[in-house]
Amino acid sequence: MKISGTATLHAPPPQVWAALTDPAVLAATIPGCERLEATGPDQYALTVTAGVASVRGTYAGQVALSEQREPEALVLTASGSGAPGTIATSVQVRLAGAGGGQTELSYDADAQVGGVIAGVGQRMLASVAKRTAGEFFTAVNEALDGQAAGTGSAGAAAAPAGQTAGPGTAA
User: Fold this and answer.
1) What pLDDT digit, counting tens, does each position of 25-45 carry?
2) Which of 11, 43, 155, 159 has the fewest Cβ atoms within 10 Å of its own Cβ atom?
3) CA distances in angstroms from 89 to 1, 63, 147, 154, listed in the order given
4) 8 Å CB contact between 167 and 10
């Protein structure tokens, strides 16, 4: 299953890069993340609760960041398994300055899904994957806004699909 998307984040590329490679930010922003522990340089053990339709479960797996070209691009690979099935994915992430101190983030993911979860159907899986990516980028943007304000509070939402988010904009 292949999915692609974009998000505009309200911080310059070096700041977005720092957030995307910070385990504390990742643990706080990955939807359903229950645990993220470093197992080596840029490698983590992960526990996530997620679901599609009526198929929900907890997945244990690994995440690694590689092919890093700071602050322009990286590859995130993840794999996990749980009662609902297995997933393995590779995500190419690219960052580009978008003017006004913003970053245009684009991603291309290729995921392989097996087990009960695969029976849900490609169209539904792709829809949930895009929604989850949108939730992740919104949370990263809120973390960046909180860092900029020095308060840790949420700010404007990130906009998926190449749209610019602003106050009151839904992701």
Assistant:
1) 999 999 999 999 999 999 999
2) 43
3) 9, 10, 29, 29
4) no
Residue with tokens 């949930």: 128
Joined together, the tokens standing for residue 62 give 């690994």
Identify whether the C-beta of residue 154 lies closer than 8 Å to the C-beta of residue 142: yes
Give the count of beta carbons closer than 10 Å to the beta carbon of residue 41. Answer: 7
* pTM above threshold 0.70: yes
The DSSP result for the chain, as a single string, is -EEEEEEEESS-HHHHHHHHT-HHHHHHHSTTEEEEEEEETTEEEEEEEEEETTEEEEEEEEEEEEEEETTTEEEEEEEEEETTEEEEEEEEEEEEE-STT-EEEEEEEEEEEESGGGGG-HHHHHHHHHHHHHHHHHHHHHHHHHHHHTS----SPPEETTPPP-TT---
In which band, very low, low, confident or very high, does the pLDDT at 76 lie, cut at 50, 70 and 90?
Answer: very high
